[in-house]
Design goal:
444 residues; alpha/beta; Rossmann fold; 2 domains; 15 strands; globular; NAD
Length: 444
């Protein structure tokens, strides 16, 4: 493994194809446009392509739509559903399709396989094929074989592992100012091309082989998930001891060996990455006869954390929630995204509904219109409407909108003044001075 700084070297425009137009694919496309390259975005979903072509994102990601409009206007980017033409006309192909959780937690590579087969089928000259999707160790070799098997005639190519490290809600910043760039390849030709692509990024580059590159991505996400489960489990002990876990988080986070990030107690991690990636790494370990007992515990703690918070809610409200009306603020798994996958909020709602609670919900960007929950959960446009006549409010997502609410004005609208802060967002003393009963997570 070689660690080098990336510096500006000068160079020519590269024709790049990005397959998959989700938040990773679209962000990747626009960042390369920013660096002066010509990009084509490919997706088989015509609705997504039409939206992107007209300058509209089909998902929520701050700052990205403005960049999309800029590069459409400047003609640095185009979008298509024409797989054959897109593959033939571009030199570097990024695979940014989904790898959802499959059986027993393993990553489902169906979309990656389909893309690889298409590349093999339509390849007309040397290409660098880059897997940016999060994929298990050994996928680069599989992609290579899938391409070869579908080539009508042999044409040389290289497969590179180049994992993304984007956070939903801050993907644009993470892409512009990455902590590191990982290039996994054994080909000097492909390595040179990748270095040219990333020459203007001022960050370290890790040069390694594809297997190590693939492992780096899973190891990084699993370690961050571990920090979250660690502080959440510690918070339960702090609750018993009457200790404010926020003070503990601050005290240990100031140790530069530990760091302050991902040490905020809450209802657990969710989204499209951590749950999927931790389970995929566990499955890889299982297939290779290696126990990862710490990660096993990480998953168990995370699964039980929303239920632990539900117990606190039930105890505070007298045990039986039947017939009560409760407001849930926040549906996305974290702020600044519309992603509800594995969201702790939805687990809380399911439990409330199971206890025959009337649930009223609000989120700044998530709408339940196309969700089965829309039939059993009332969603409102304003927080005031949402909390009106409720026995309690549960804060499930750390949206800035909720931190800046005037709780003094909201209190008279509620039947009972209970706030359950699942993200430890609010100032306990301040809301209690307004007459609220405030319950956070070890927020004493």
């Amino acid at each position: 493994m070689i660690l080098l700084p990336l510096v500006h070297q000068g160079g020519s425009v590269v024709k790049i194809l990005v397959i998959g137009t989700g938040y990773v694919g679209t962000t990747t496309s626009l960042i390369f446009c920013e660096k002066g390259h010509q990009v084509t975005g490919l997706d088989l979903d015509d609705r997504k392509i039409q939206a992107l072509t007209s300058g509209k994102l089909h998902f929520y990601e701050p700052g990205l739509e403005e960049l999309l409009t800029k590069h459409i206007t400047n003609k640095n980017i185009s979008f298509t559903t024409d797989t054959e033409t897109a593959i033939k006309e571009n030199d570097v192909i990024f695979i940014c399709v989904g790898t959802p959780m499959g059986k027993e937690g393993s990553a489902d590579l169906t979309f990656v396989k389909n893309v690889a087969e298409s590349i093999g089928r339509y390849m007309n000259r040397y290409k660098v094929v880059v897997t940016k999707s999060t994929v298990p160790v050994g996928t680069a070799e599989k992609v290579t074989n899938w391409i070869i098997k579908n080539q009508p005639t042999p044409i040389s190519f290289d497969v590179v592992s180049n994992p993304e490290f984007l956070r939903e809600g801050s993907a644009l910043y993470d892409a512009l100012y990455p902590d590191r760039i990982v290039i996994g390849t054994t080909s000097e030709k492909a390595r040179t091309i990748m270095e040219e692509l990333y020459k203007d990024f001022q960050c370290p580059v890790v040069q390694t082989n594809p297997k190590a590159s693939e492992m780096i991505k899973y190891a990084a996400n699993s370690f961050l998930a571990m920090k979250i489960s660690y502080i959440n489990e510690l918070a339960r002990l702090c609750d018993r001891l009457g200790i404010n876990v926020n003070d503990v988080s601050k005290g240990i986070g100031l140790d530069h060996r530990i760091g302050p990030l991902f040490l905020r107690a809450g209802m657990g991690y969710g989204g499209s990455c951590f749950p999927k990636d931790v389970n995929a790494l566990l499955q890889t370990a299982k297939e290779n006869g290696q126990l990862l007992s710490i990660l096993d515990s990480v998953v168990k703690v995370n699964a039980s954390q929303p239920l632990y918070f539900m117990e606190k809610i039930q105890q505070a409200l007298g045990g039986d929630l039947q017939g009560k009306t409760i407001a849930v603020l926040g549906l996305s798994f974290k702020a600044n995204t519309d992603d509800t996958r594995e969201s702790p909020s939805l687990i809380i709602i399911e439990n409330l509904l199971g206890d025959q609670v009337t649930v009223r919900a609000h989120d700044p960007v998530v709408h339940l219109d196309n969700s089965p929950l829309s039939e059993v959960v009332q969603q409102f446009e304003t927080v005031a409407e949402t909390v009106s006549g409720t026995d309690a409010v549960i804060l499930c997502t750390d949206w800035e909108d909720y931190k800046s609410l005037n709780w003094g004005e909201l209190k008279p609208l509620m039947k009972q003044p209970y706030i359950f802060d699942g993200r430890n967002m609010l100032d306990k003393r301040e809301v209690e001075s307004l007459g609220f009963h405030y319950i956070g997570i070890a927020n004493h």
